[in-house]
Each structure stands twice: as structure tokens, then as C-alpha cells.
Amino acid sequence: MAISNNPNPPMSNIKDINIVDEMRNSYINYAMSVIVARALPDVRDGLKPVHRRILYAMYRQSFLPSGPYKKSARTVGEVIGKYHPHGDTSVYDAMARMAQPFSYRYMLVDGQGNFGSIDGDPPAAMRYTESRLHKNSLDIIGDIDKNTVDFEKTYDGSYMEPVVLPSIVPTLLLNGAEGIAVGMATKIPPNNIVEIMNALTETVTKGIKADSERDCTYLDSIRTMEDLKSLDKSRFPEFNSDISFEEIFKLLPGPDFPTGAVIFDHTEIENAYITGRGRIVMRAVADIKETKTGRFQIIISELPYQVNKADLVTKIADLVRDKKIEGISDLRDETNKLGIRVVIELKKDSKPKTILNNLYKYTEMQKAFNMNMLALVNGEPKLLNIKRVLELFVQHREEVIIRRSEFELAKCREREHILEGLMIALDNLDEVISTIRASKDAEVAKASLIKKFKLSDIQAQAILDMQLRKLAALERQKIEDEYKQIKLTISDLIALISTSERIFSKITEEFAGIIEKRGDARRTKIHRGKIGEFNEEDLIQKETVIVTVSEQGYIKRMKEDVYQLQHRGGIGKKGMTTNENDSVSHLFYCNTHDDILFFTNKGRVFIQKVYEIPEFARQAKGQAVVNLINIEQGELVTSILTQNPSGKMVDEDITQENQISMVSQEPFKYLFFATRKGTVKKSLISEYKNIRANGIIAIKLTDDDELIWVKPTKGDDEVILITRQAHSIKFNEQNVRETGRASMGVMGIRFKSKDDEVIAMDVVRRNEFFVLTISLNGFGKISQLKNFPIQKRGGVGVFAAKVNSKTGDLVAARILDHPDSELLIISNQGQAVKIPTKDLPERNRQTAGVRLMRLRKQDQVTAIAII
User: Buried-most residue among 271, 457, 643, 767 (CB within 10 A)?
Assistant: First the structure.
């Protein structure tokens, strides 16, 4: 190699460049390369380049859903060898995610082997796993061979790859997307396919169609496949729709994550879809359950999207170890092929609701999905709202259908052209045969046919290639029939391309087919309220229901008609499955939109919506109240009031008809309390308006007393107390002065025996004439209320009934407020009987009554309700 001795070499190839400008331009080029070619999905098929290349490579290798699995390494090698100029690790990681049911709402790759887990375990090496296209991918890549999308050269110019895939489904919305580019990032949540396709259908229906007839004069120029290459792209119109966001949200209420869980606050969700940016709060699904030993468990069955289960379990263990969360005795991961199950054992005196709230606060059991709907539109990154994404996808489908139809039109015209030549040959069969026989070779024969019969080169070649069997009469008829069918198909394709309504009708027809083929149920539940509000009233039907609470604290909601009317003296039907030594203590009718006030034996009050009480069958035990309200171990619900949405308080024992009439009258002013030891108290209802999640003090009690009854009053009502040993006292509530919420009260009735206790407290309402008493052994009667004299509070009262060993002590007493009411009686063993109150015998105060319910051996009456 010669070395120049010139000390001043020529400088013609050296340019002076400002380093600031060079760095800026180079970095912009790099950033755009990352944005367009790596990190952001295309709004049309919802795929990044690596995902698109994986699906296309598998399709070209015929790794189809109907075929056998192939080594994943074959696909990765094909992708990096032909299409993707990056490392094999990035390709295999992207491919593995498309095969993970916890990552993709609708998987695109069907994997066999270890493709990772929700615990963060990585997939096995690509040489071990096998894969093929998932059947869902066929809806994305189908029709790709019909000139539906543009192709471009690969990175080395050796092959061609699609710019976008002709997807029938909007993968961008179905599976979401996540990517970090330079200076921007995208994070789009997955959605339910039924909701998305319904929203797309409505978007098409509300589409703005400027002209029904499209300008399709160019269709006459389409004769061969080559003609498609020169078509002007301006033939694809822009699509816009008149659909409103409100109409979209009726069909598409929010994301649907593959891992289920719960999301909150429809206002924030809708705002995120409207603006393209927003914060969606996700929560794990966790239930509090009681074990046979009386302790409680928190069982986690669904996790927020993209939460690592193993890391979550480790985090909970760390919180317990560091004593940031107390009350947890054991932690187990019992997840199996049936689903996620993380069991948290609680200590005996722990508060389940408090611990669960702390888990939401300190762990990823509650997590935010920060939505940023950024995608490529014509190669440019744009922040989109849900309406625009739907419009752009419909526009993509319109383009695909037009291009597919043009491709089929070109194919049909090519075949039409050949059939016309064959028919000319059949019409002039003898001349054609003689012409061919007279020619010395095929080229001369072709030239002679073209000249003599004015055929094209393609037609002449087709005649020369025609088999002798085509000369038969039936074969000739087939050619004529095929020609007629081709003509009809051409006319139909031209009509389809030329008419907007036909195109949109075809689009909606395809969407309906997707719903029928791939539609599934929503996994993620949406709470319309914010965290802590749990407000679902807009989704809950208003209806009358029955709510029961057992003595050991199990509650359930049932349909109004679960009990049929019967006659007195029967054994009834099974009303509730209870534990041994448990029985129904409360049974009342209310509306699903009412509030329920739970008063406990320890003098506290909690509030809950009726529709939040889980619904169970008639025979079911129900759910522990501790799942709904934050009561302590050993604390029991003893009295219940309902409050309708207008704020009117309603007593659980007031009949439905009287409830309706009383709402329009003067509202209740006070809450009247009675304890098991005979203490009474009266406080303003307004003092119980702001009830916290942890409850508030309703009455102050002595250590040996319990709050049992709470009734709403108007200030001048009469109150009656009845004891277990059948003593009763009726007095005016004005004898009890108003006191504050945390006061103790005064004596209401004095007991003759230390073993006696109050078993009923009721308020005398308008048009109420009878006192109903029921004993342990199923005996009962009604007595006229006027036979109970008004006395001063604090006395021993008068007899309300006669009790003995046959009847047993009194277990319940009520004032009847309507002559056509119905009485529901429930026993300790869960039997229930429902009888009309007009069948009840009227007796004097001092009598025992008659048998109302025939009880099995060792069974006793525990609760009643007036319907």
C-alpha cells in the first residue's frame, strides 16, 4: 500500500458542522426510529413491529392453529433472519407474552411448554418450548394475501413484509399496549371483545356518510392484478361518526383485564377514555371467610393487572414481620390450575376489615393503571380518545374491504377474460382444432389463434392448455355456468365498492360474526363509586327483598317470593341452613336501594347498602356480617333499621303498606333504645347521620348489659316492653327525656325475677290494635292493645301472656299494624312457616294461645317477621 508524502492532503470531503445541530438532528432521527419502528403500536392493527413480524413469520411458515406445534426457536430464527434487525431475546420475550393468559386478554400465540407464570417466572428457553398461531390471530392476519395492505422491503431488502395487518378486530383495544419510546410512552388497557365490537357497530351505524354512491369510475380500469398497483390511495375516504361518548360508555363501560379484579370510579374511567389520559384504580378480589374454628381468613382470588403474585406474597410477609400490619398468623399461596388462591390466616381477636384495608393500602392489592392512549396514525404518534380510535379502526376496515373487493374483482375479470376465450374456442371448435393442427409448433399456433379469432395472449394460451375433456357437452356447460356466475360476482363486487351502505353493512356483519365466534363474559367488575364509596345504585334494580341475620352473625339477601303462603299448624319449609347452636334473629323486608343501620349488642351502629349484602338461596347459611361491617370478635348485630334514599328512617317491623303511608307523613325524630336489662334511652336521629366505616357509639352500656332493640319514634309515641317471662309495660316516650348519643339511659321496666329479661320492645303506631306473642314451643296469639294499660316507666307491668312448660317462655312479641298482614316464623333448626295473621286466634292477655308452628324434636322458635 502506497503512503502519500504530501503533508497537506486534500480537504474536499471534510465539512464543518455545528455539533449542537448535529446532535439534535441525530437524536431526533434516533427518537423517531424508536417511536415508529419499535415502541409504539399502529392504531389500525394494534401491533408493534416485533409482534407484527412474529405473527407474519409464523403465518408464512404455516404454523397455523390446525397444524402441529413447532419449536419456538424456528419462529425466532425466521423473524430475526428475515424481518427484525434486533436480538433474539427481545423477539422471544414478545412472543412469550402473546402466549400468556395473564398478560393478554385474547392470546395471539398458542404455546406448549413453560411460557412463564404470574409469579414472574421467566419462560423456558426457546429451544424447549413449542408454539403455533392462536386461532385469535387468524382474525388479525386473514386476507393478507388479497392485496389488503401495503408491503415494504425488509431491513436488508431481501424480502417483503406487511406495513400493517388487515385485522378484523381492534387489537389495540382488545389486548391493550405498553411501550416506552424516547420522550413519550403508551399504556392502553385491554377491553372486552363483545363490548368493543358493539361499540364499533354503533360507531359504524352513526357514521357520517356524505355520499351514498362513491366515485368508482376507476373500477373499469381494473382488469388484471397488475392494475391494482397503480390505483390512487385517495379512493379511501376518511371516516367520522356522530356517536357520542355517552353512547360509547353505555356499550363500553371500562377496561376488562385478563386477571379480573375490580376497578373504581366510572367518572375517572370515562374521563380517561375521553381525554386519552387518566388513572384507573384496580383492586384485588378478596373475601373474608370464617373457619370451623371460629377464626377468619382473607382469601385473595383475583389480582390487579400486571401484579406479580410472588412479590405480593413476599410484601405481605415483610409487612407482618415489620409489624406494619398486625393480626395475621399465617400466609399461604394455594394457587393451582383452577385459579389464584392466596390464603391469609388471621389471629383470634383481629379485625378482618381493618387488616384487609391495610393490605389494600400497603401492597399492590390496590394499584393504579395510568392510561396513556398513544398510537401511530399514518406513521405519526398521536394521543387519541376512545371515539377516535374506533373511527380510525372502522376507516381501516373500510380500506381493507375495498382493497379486498378490488383484488377479488381483478381475479374475477382475469378469469372472465379466460372464460370468454374458451367460449370462443368452443363456438369455433373445428376451426380452432384445424388451426392448431396446421401449426408446426405451439408458438405458431398461439399466434394464429390470436390473429384469426382476435384473442389475447392469455386467452390463446388458455385454449392451447385446454384439456380434451373440456370438449364434452357437460364440461362446456360448466364453463358457461361459471361465466354467468363470474359476471354476477363482478356486478356484486362493483356494487359493494360503489355504495357506502354496502361497505358499512359488510363491516357490521363481520363484527357480528366476531361476537358470535369469540364473545366472552367480562372478567373485571366495575364499581361506579370511588374507593370506599362502593356506589353501584345506577346498576342495581329497585326491588323488595328479604334480609335475614342469624344470632351468630350470618346475613343474606333473598328474593321477596321465596316463602309461599301456608296455613297455621304446619311445619313449614327449610328457610336457612345454620350452624349448630345458631338461629335466625332478624328477618325483615326492604328495598335494594335502602341503607341498613346495624346496631350491635355492644352499643355501636354501622351502615351498609342493601344491595351490598350478598344474595343467597333460601336454604343457604349466608355470609358472616364481619365481611360487611367492621365489628369486633364476639360482637353481634341485635337490631336493624332501614333508611330509604330520601333519608326517611323505617323500622324493620313496620309492614310495607304502613311504611309507604308513613313516608308521606311527619318523619321520625328520635331513635328509642332498649337493652336486655330493661334500660331505655331516646336520642335525636340527626346524631346518627355521619356513620364512619368503623361505626360510632349508639348508647353507653354497663358491662353486664346489651343493646337489643332500636326503634324510630316521633316524640309522642307510646312504647311497650315485653319480657321473657311474659311481663309487659306500656308508657309514653315523653316519660324518657332526650339525651346525647353516648349516654346510658334510664330504667324502663323492673323485673320480678333475676332470670327475666326484655325480649321485645315495640312502638305503638297508627291503626295498630293487637299485640302478637310467640313462645319458644310455637304457641301464639293476638290480644287487643287496649287491654294493655298505660303506666309510668320503671314499673313491673302487667301479664302479656300465660307461659308454662308446655308453651315455653316468650321468644318474640310484635304489635300488628294491619289486619291483612302475614306472619313468618323461623325456628332454631332453620324451618320456616308463613301464615296470614287473620288466621291467628284472638285471646285475652293472660292466656297462652294456640299452636302456630309444629316443631320437630329439640327445635324452638327463634325469630318472626310481619309482612
Answer: 643
* Per-residue model confidence as pLDDT tens digits over 753-782: 888 999 989 888 765 678 889 999 889 888
> In the structure grid, which three cell numbers stand for residue 298, read together?
382473607
Inform me whether the pLDDT recorded for 665 exceeds 60. Answer: no
H helices of 768-820, in order, are: none
Classify 19-187 by CATH class.
alpha beta
> What torsion do the CA atoms of 299, 301, 307, 313 make, to the nearest 10 degrees?
30
pLDDT at 672: 94
Domain 285-364 - what CATH class?
alpha beta
Average pLDDT in the 156-169 region? 95
State the Cα–Cα distance between residues 458 and 452, nearest whole angstrom: 15
Please identify which of the residues 27, 128, 155, 159 carries the catalytic annotation: 128
Average pLDDT over residues 183-198: 94
Q: Please, what is the average pLDDT of the chain?
A: 86
Residue that has been written with the C-alpha cell 331513635 in this structure: 671
Domain 544-866 has CATH 2.120.10.90: yes
CA dist 492 and 409 (Å) reads 9
CATH superfamily entry for domain 397-518: Topoisomerase, domain 3 (1.10.268.10)
Q: Which of residues 539 and 805 earns the better pLDDT score?
A: 805
Domain ranges of the chain: 19-187, 285-364, 397-518, 544-866
Q: Is 128 a catalytic residue?
A: yes
Contact 610, 701 (CB under 8 A): no
Q: Distance between CA atoms of 623 and 627, rounded to whole angstroms?
A: 7
SS3 357: helix
The answer to whether the CB of 762 falls within 8 A of the CB of 731 is no
The burial of 409, by beta-carbon neighbours within 10 Å (0-12 exposed, 13-18 middle, 19 or more buried), is given as buried
Strand order in the sheet with 366-372: 177-180, 185-188, 366-372, 277-283, 262-264, 525-527
